[in-house]
Amino acid sequence: MEGERKFGIIDYPVPSNTRPNAGLDYRKILIVNDSKYIVNVGIEDSDGVSKSQQRIIRNNYLIICKQIIAYVKRYVYSAIKEREKIEAKYRFSTLHNFHSELKIIEGREKGKTKKNS
Question: Which residues, 6+ apart, have CB-to-CB distance to 60 below 8 Å?
Fold first, then answer.
């Protein structure tokens, strides 16, 4: 399966003629909860993204979205269990910087409350 490594799906390949190993690396996701920080720019306006890469992203948009959502959900589950720094899939993820946005701290507190009940 594309993007699959020994520890699961962490990316989606988006090769071009000049960059045959290019892709979207899910470990480098940014979480933005406030829409005022989002600029509505399509990939067509992105510098450095070739037409062939734009086509791949556009044609596989739903698959990419599903994989990203699954990656983030599994990260949250792992982080609530405090395993995100141990599991290879998440060790180098930028999601470590977004625990408050992902409500991981609250999830850990709920887990501790359940254990103490």
Answer: 12
Residue pair 11/25 in contact (Cβ under 8 Å)? The answer is yes
Domain limits, the chain: 4-30+47-116
14-28, 51-65, 83-97, 101-115: the lowest-pLDDT one: 101-115
The structure's pTM equals 0.82
Q: What is the pLDDT of residues 15-58, one digit of tens each?
A: 999 999 999 999 999 999 888 888 766 666 666 788 899 999 99
Question: In this structure, what DSSP letter does residue 87 have?
Answer: S
- 41-67-49 Cα angle (round to 5): 35
3-state class (DSSP) for residue 12: strand
* Integer Cα distance of 27 and 89 in angstroms: 8
**CA distance readout (Å), 33 to 36, 42, 85, 89:** 9, 19, 23, 23
